[in-house]
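Appendix B.2, paired examples.
Example (i):
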Amino acid sequence: MALGLNVAADMFSSTNYKVNHPVMFVGDYSSSTSFALQAVMGQPGIGTSTSSSFGAQFGFLYFPFASSPVITGTAGPGKVDLSWTSSVGVLGWNIAAYETGYSAVSSAGPYIFENVGNVTSATVDELSNGTAYYFLVRALDAFGISVASSTVISATPAAAPPGGGGGGGGGGGGGGGGGGGTTQIIIKGVAYPDAEIYVLKDGSLSGQIFADAGGNWIKTISVNAGIYTFTVYAVDKDEVRSISTSFTTSIALGQTVTISDIVIPPTIVSDKSEVRQGNPIKFYGSSYPNSVVNVIINSNQTISDKAAVDKLGLWVYDLNSGLLEKGEHASKGQTLTQSNVASIFSNTIGFIVGDKDSPFNKPSLPGACNKNGDINNDGRVNLVDFSILMYFWNQRQPKNKCADVNQDGIVNIYDFSIMLYWWTG
């Protein structure tokens, strides 16, 4: 039996392109400034993009992944010995080599990189004693493209101590335990003015602090030697929570590890869950003062724009919905500081361009919460309901009680699972 199937493989090099209605297997790599993949049919496809905006609609798209190497450093005279754990690639990525990077300027760079091959240790030498350096390691695929990066660590080379005074002393045992310092991590970054900052260590709350009036914050945590995953998120003055930023690092006994330049992503809210086509819709939230928020509107034609953040940490972006087709859309934001350090993207907020204006987070009638995840009571379970669910994520007794779909007192993965089961789109 013969099957008449059309199979195509194309390499695109334009700066702006779309792949519409591929028939069978899909695997695309893009470095364009705008990339969209639509209507994937059949087997899920690997989609990889380094574009500034990426859209995927109506298909089953999955992405390759590479774990982040965990780096440690030991300072010596004019050098720092680096070692790291192996990065593991899945779903299409294979790690072929590593490159080390160092900077004497700041943790944000610029960095000088060197490809050291497929090894898990290297020495950076010809460094100046007494100067603080910043180091990171990047995992490279077979094409020399960076697919994963470690966190940044700091180390200061120091001259060897002078020889010790005439030999002596024979034995002299022990005393003092080697003078090891405190084992701790210092985490610092920027958020929103007076924001409440939560720091978790391996999933458990490790500290709760407030950013200052300028949005700056710092947290010192004493730990035992080991490898830890830290998670940081913020809650702004309107009690809107940011998405979490996580990183894994190794801390040696007696070592102080400093993780800096953590930029908490902006919070994002819209004034409407549905907007009448042609009417304006507003997106707003909190960000680091005097920074810029890169706003992305995911649609058939992706819109990328910027919103200025005022000195109070507030940003607003007005969108003319007449630029969008009717249907479901989504928006997200990314903070870019004045020193060009970027956050990860915020959570994604969904909205509909339709025939009427509906305020965002419109609660259902009292006592009329649906049990299928239709939080805004519009007869559909879709991206708008998901956005409302994420707004109240992990909250106990949320103000919109319909976000707690199974009514167990907390908005969590069980409510999300129910929503997925009844999803209508």
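Example (ii):
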Amino acid sequence: SLIFIHSFKVGDKSKKEGLCEMKDATAKDKYPEFEGLGLTDSEQVSYDRFRFWKVVILVSIWYSFYYLGRLNWGMCMPWMIKDLGITKTQAGVGATVLFWSYAFGTLISGKLGDTYGARVMNTIGGIGTVILNIIVASMARINIMLIPWGFNGFIQGQAYAPTNNMITQWYPKAKRGLATGIFATSMGVASLFVWLITGTVAAHYGWRAAFTYPLLFCTLPLTILFFILARSKPKDAGYPEYKETMTNTISSKAEELRDDQISGFKAWGLLFGNWKFVCLAVASFMLYMGRYGLLTWVPLYYAETAGINLKKIPIATIALPLGMAVGPIIAGWISDRFFKAKRYQILTIYMLAFTTIMIILASAGLKTLGLPLSFFLLAIGGFFVLGSVGLVFTPACDFGGRRMAGTAVGSVNFFNYMGAGTQGFVIGMILDATKNWGIVFGLLSGCAILGIILVNIVRE
């Protein structure tokens, strides 16, 4: 599907004229960002292939398995509660510790990524998370376990902002939606891998094995491969920088800034001095309450309310990551092709749909809906919430341009994971106090409504 969508950008003309004529077509119409760079048609095609396969696709595959060291807590929560004898609040605090430490990690990594590039930062993150997950798996007490788990959150935060910066270095605003949409799809695919790989290992060998083997045999080898093949900027691969084709936008204005204007803490000052950027960050906080509210608690929800055997939980609840796997790429493609890169319009549609589904789950409940309809709604909810998440980061890249993309994404991601961490202990306390899952889904719908309001204030 990725190959099809990438090829679809060539346009309807290629379908009529065939592959041979497509190769001979003037590259000017296909790659306006390369005009005036002195590249031949074949060099422009080579440039485009490199940035698609060795930047977008490679980092998306790597990031899909990087998540095995982060989402494993939520997937393994039913087993951990039983094995360690902890409460839901304690389990939720574990999620909070990871997400809040991630928030500070990603805030710093944005600036570091602008300096050192995604190739270095992602390698540090990949190796670090493997080591820290193995340490967590070796511990027996939850209080001590939270220390390396917190460091793991910080290390996990080293990759996302630099990766978005890398994509911004290779793609202009007009084509960035699809590129970031493909990368955001890796978050949904990652959820699917966690359900299939981590869930299967936990069901058969225990949660400690699920914290160890998937990372050793999947995350670590792919991290090494990424370091060997990836390049953070076009010049690192021998290509010139593209020319931004959309003028008078937040991206073009950011790229006109001088080095002395964005040095040190000045970049953060410029970003947070823009009230629209602040609204975007808070909207993203709300979205991540919804995203991780589902990812963290859905396995436990079905284990408790549907009476599903723990060994069957990963397969029974796989509808959620399946929906998440396809939401972002479709949203990114739609925003570029039909909304002319106006992300807020499709973002509003997605968030309204997610809100509707959460209201249905909150008001009807599992007994009324039944398992088949409940799983279907879960898949659709995952589709819309992660599709929304992917769209939030694209305007963040736009606010930063090539000069500050990492800093901008890292700043938004800080708010994201503050929201993700907040849902951890808040939902845990709600469940311990009320045992009412309807309140949980009602909370998530309320967060989405606030996000919709803020996104339409930003209108980027």
